[in-house]
Amino acid sequence: MKLIACVHFHGEGAAVAAVAFEDWDAREASQTFTFRVAELEKPERGKPDLRELQCILQLLQEHRLKPEVILIDAPVHLDAAEAPGPGWRLFDALGGQSAVIGISTKAMPGMPAQFEVFREEEARPMIVTCAGIDLGAAKVRVRNMHGKKRIPTLVKLAARMARENPG
Which of 95, 106, 153, 98 is nearest to 128 (CA)? Predict the structure, then answer.
């Protein structure tokens, strides 16, 4: 099973949603999951914000999910030198058991063109970083996901589910 996970913060808490699918070009989810976190502590000044990681880990534990790949709307690496980002912390927390693909719609300073993916009709690229899977393979999978616009259909679904499920 492959999984797309999105977190949306609501006041002091958060909602996390995940969409499971089998094929990279799937139009619909095979299953969906949600989880609410009532209260999250804000990160200390100067420390990394790990709230999203906590939410995704709680969802995986609550639903006893062990996906082969998790796609998140956050970078795995923050730069070409592979400074760890939220996706790397997720990969590490899972003991490398699941590959993690991070997508970002915002340009990331210091990221060379090798991390860019252009999807169909879109002029601006998405940035793809990963752990536990080859970068070239990750880019092909993201490029082949269903949807004519920049953001794949199932990523939009997971984000909408998280937004519409108040914490």
Answer: 106
